[in-house]
Amino acid sequence: xxxxxNLVLFHYTASPYARRVYFYLTxxxxxxxxxxxxxxxxxxxxxxxxxxxxxxxxxxxxxxxxYDTRLILQKxxxxxxxxxxxxxxTGGEHKALETLLQQWTDGAVFGSASMLIPTHLPLLNxxxxxxxxxxxxxxxxxxxxxxxxxxxxxxxMVAAFGFLxxxxxxxxxxxxxxxxKPALADILAxxxxxxxxxxxxxxxxxxxxxxxxxxxxxxxKRFEDAVKAARSSAPKPVTLKGADAIQQITGADFVEPEISxxxxxxxxxxxxxxxxxxxxDTGVNHRDQGRLVGLSTDEVVLECQIKVxxxxxxxxxxxxxxxxxRTDGETGTKL
Length: 335
Known about the structure:
Blueprint: E1 7-11, H1 16-28, E2 33-36, H2 44-48, E3 58-61, E4 64-67, H3 69-79, H4 93-113, H5 127-137, H6 143-168, H7 184-197, H8 214-231, E5 238-239, H9 242-250, E6 274-279, E7 288-295, E8 299-305, E9 312-318, E10 322-326
Helix pairs in contact: 1-7, 1-8, 4-6, 4-7, 7-8
């Protein structure tokens, strides 16, 4: 296993995306610390680090900070290659299926799954939560709107359950890629199915049930059992208060060397320019600004000023699903 990178995972326990990273870390037995955040803004710990991005989870490794579960899992695969769960980059159809499942799950499937949150839950009766999620998603989250969207969302989830039931699991395989244990493809795909199954009342039994989709339900149960078994031997994460997490990060070095800025990139950006970065689908109103220090076809890296220390962090985000543009004037980054 790779040298400990003093990982700090910023998340809240109900986040289905954070659960994806938790599943990975647990199945791999990778040690990490966590700093629990509120489910709604503001998140003062992240604000103190100079982070405007609002989506959870966020992973810090030293003073390198990573957005989006896609990039977080990619980095963990690279840093801890012994026992990696992903298909090899030259893995042909397995790598393609892994990537396509992630894109499909995070897009169409999870978008529909989020509309099936039971409206009786306390959070959906909290005006602060509703307002926060409307800012996050750009759509209505009040009860009446949620109930109106449910029939279409149920239809989409029936199709999603049916896809796995009658294609990938039609041959009675235990795991998506036919592996002996859960692989990265399972972690990427299981999220909406496991999440909805854990929410009483989310899945209408007359449309989605174990009787109708026995293979998918069995796969979710196997996955939960595998995580439970791994948790019994995995290092227990230490929970840090915000001030302690910030101190650990500000006192660390960068863990990755800088990547160059691709001079042939279509955006025409240059190293050292002031830019802003934001996700293109949700949370678009919360943008980070900094100095561009890395740009490739897969990743963008900004260097940004920490608000509570005379140091900087490097924010890493995937290219796909994020936008970057040159800004005029100062970004607040002091180098």
